[in-house]
Amino acid sequence: MTHGEPTRGGRHGDAGLAIGRKGIRPIQLFVELASARKAPFFLWYAPMMPHQPHNPPDRLLDHYRGKAPTEQVAKYWAMCEWFDETCGELLRLLDEKKLTDNTLVVFLADNGWIQDAKADRYAPRSKQSPYDGGLRTPILVRWPGHTTPRVIETPVSALDIAPTVLRAAGVAPSVELGGVNLLDEKAVAAHPPVFGEIFTHNAVRLGDPPASLRFRWVVDGDWKLIVPEPRNEPKAPVELFEIGHDPTESHDLAATRPEKAAELVRKLEAYWLVRKP
To answer: Nearest to residue 183, comparing CAs of 105, 108, 69, 238?
Structure first.
């Protein structure tokens, strides 16, 4: 589904990104084949939705015009509903093939998005930023008979998905893999701090992650620390937020709580100590 050649219009996903926007027939064919063969299967549905371009069908856009504050927001909301519709088609397909009870479904997103109300782009402190508007995304796990609908507010990570899938398949993940089984309530409740990073949109040098690094961050309980990488963010300060009481990250406490900042720096560097160039 991908050729990846930029001179022919390729990008990560290229031809496969038409799935969803142009229906899910390729997915239906794949699931029908696996079902007919009674074969286990892995399906990764990663559509260009609600990603730009925001060009939803008029039947959806008309629903949000007059309800959204601006046309740009209406388009984004309509894109979200369009994506939801395709997810519904996919889940109904599993129902029709009687695969629902034996299929683990995991939903995740690659980044957060706050729609700019006045332009066809994301707002500041959203995508590509180290703030929660760009980092915090939902992870949903659906497996009838093994999960029950509920909301868990403990911060977890996309790195937890691999051990979760392996455990569900009866495979013990290696210690080196890390992560937590999201189907294990006790393990989730005791989840360690969540670490992450922001890189430049395009890699500076393949095989050299620090060359593209902009920020490292850690969320530990109610606290979040953001540490800029000087080579790419020379003017950005270290920032500390008590996100339990300041979810919009409006009050930087790095200067008034230096001991907490230092504690989180130690944890961050124990996770990934960036060597100076």
So the answer is: 105
